[in-house]
Design a protein that fits this description.
Largest sheet: 5 strands, antiparallel
Strand content: over 45%
Strand order of the largest sheet: 1-2-3-5-4
Structural class: mainly beta
Shape: rod-shaped
Order of helices and strands: EEEEEEEEEHEEEEEEEE
Number of helices: 1
């Protein structure tokens, strides 16, 4: 298709030159045009050619793939025709920012480990089982006079990113916040993964990146120890007997499991594209 511009320059697209590539979700494309004139002097002036309305500009959408935009335009003279030029236009889904994954679908998963120090009053209690009995959890006393000790709890932070073609629905995401997995999730046992929330970024006019964050506690399933307190909020203590019958100190009289995230849901319902189909 040829476009004749006001200054008698014709710009034709070479449709057979259209190329597309998708490498690990990074989509790119290219188009080529020729610019020439039928005037007797055969000259095409460079002045204003790149501003010509028939030449795609940075940020313009690809005619077939709306998520791709122009990131570069270059001109080179045609050897076989004096005063004629080839115009090469490159497109990327990164919107000109470069290097961003812009394919639509599940894109990436990321796992990191950290340690959180939590208060414990008992050791050797075993993993908590739901539903909790409500009584003392047993085990050996670790506290001193009702004061807990710090326990290093390993946690896994999971992040899953997908690209979608509409604005993220944070109202829907909020229904999952602070809830644990109902069944297996990413290989983790039920109740061990809690949804922490989401973040998003608009990559192109038609594509959004959404990252969902989770925390996995495979040791205690996010349950925490709490010591029984009296009406004044003081931890109720009891003597620790030794072999002679004399007290050798005190510890919390009763310690229970509490679960700050009691609700469980199907966390896969968060995704438009299943990360583990």
């Amino acid at each position: 298709m040829g476009f004749v511009t006001p200054n008698l320059i014709t710009i034709d697209e070479l449709h057979t030159s259209r190329t597309y590539s998708d490498e690990n979700g990074q989509i790119s494309a290219s188009r080529s045009f020729v610019a020439y004139t039928t005037e007797s002097d055969g000259a095409v002036g460079l002045s204003g050619l790149l501003r010509n309305p028939s030449v795609p500009k940075a940020g313009d959408k690809h005619p077939e793939i709306a998520s791709l935009t122009v990131v570069g335009v270059s001109l080179s003279p045609m050897d076989e025709s004096r005063g004629a030029y080839t115009i090469d236009v490159s497109y990327s889904g990164s919107g000109g920012e470069g290097g961003s994954y812009v394919g639509v679908g599940f894109m990436d998963d990321n796992v990191s480990m950290s340690v959180q120090y939590i208060d414990v009053w008992r050791v050797d209690t075993g993993a908590p089982e739901e539903p909790y009995a409500g009584g003392d959890i047993g085990g050996g006393c670790a506290d001193s006079g009702g004061n807990p000790v710090s326990f290093p709890l390993p946690l896994l932070e999971l992040k899953y990113t997908e690209h979608i073609t509409h604005a993220p629905n944070f109202a829907a995401y909020s229904q999952f916040v602070a809830k644990r997995n109902l069944g297996l999730f990413a290989g983790a046992a039920y109740g061990t993964v809690v949804y922490m929330g989401a973040s998003s970024k608009r990559l192109t006019p038609d594509v959004w990146s959404v990252t969902h964050s989770f925390m996995c506690d495979s040791m205690f399933k996010h349950a925490r120890q709490r010591a029984k307190t009296d009406i004044d909020g003081q931890i109720v203590q009891n003597d620790l007997p030794d072999g002679s019958g004399d007290g050798e100190g005190t510890c919390a009289e009763m310690v229970m499991w509490v679960q700050p995230f009691p609700d469980r849901v199907n966390l896969y319902s968060l995704f438009e594209f299943n990360p583990y189909p």
